[in-house]
Amino acid sequence: FMVLVLLAAWAVWDAVGFRRSRLWLPIAFGVLAVFAFLTWAAADGLVPVTGLLFGALSLSVPLIFGALGGVIGERVGVVNVAIEGQFLFGAFSAALVASLTSSPFLGLIAAMVGGVLVAFVLAAFSIKYLVDQVIVGVVLNVLVTGLTGFLYGALLVPNEDLLNRPER
User: Fold this and answer.
1) pTM here?
2) CA 126, CA 130: separation in Å to the nearest integer?
């Protein structure tokens, strides 16, 4: 706590003296503040910090992969707003195929195929018909959200014992 107070005082001293603060100062303050908060939260044992960090890491990895795919697409000039639709259709097709075949590996392949199908629709409308990529991406997100919701209600809910139990 005292280190944070000293770093804050140093930043205030730089600001009062009209000096630019060094870049490492806010970075060190942020890292130390997060570490101090996690230490304080775990001190009484009420917050399971290791489980919290594991859950945050495991839930953020797919989003980070999607964001990296979007960055790579941006570097080559593709504005892919339909990444969420690709995730959703891939997850739905994976759950459907994995529960039909009882094979998580075929479900993984179906997830890739589902994401590629959404990407093909984005590419067809953007390249062949010259529709704005952002508009097509938003429309695809809405389309895939509605389509998976409809297919879930029409296929998975009535056949819960057969189709809604994928292998883990």
Assistant:
1) 0.70
2) 5
Dihedral of CA atoms 8, 9, 10, 16 in degrees, nearest 10, equals: 110
Dump pLDDT digits (tens) for 6-52: 999 989 988 898 888 788 999 999 999 998 888 887 887 777 878 88
CA distance linking residue 78 with residue 120, whole number of Å = 13
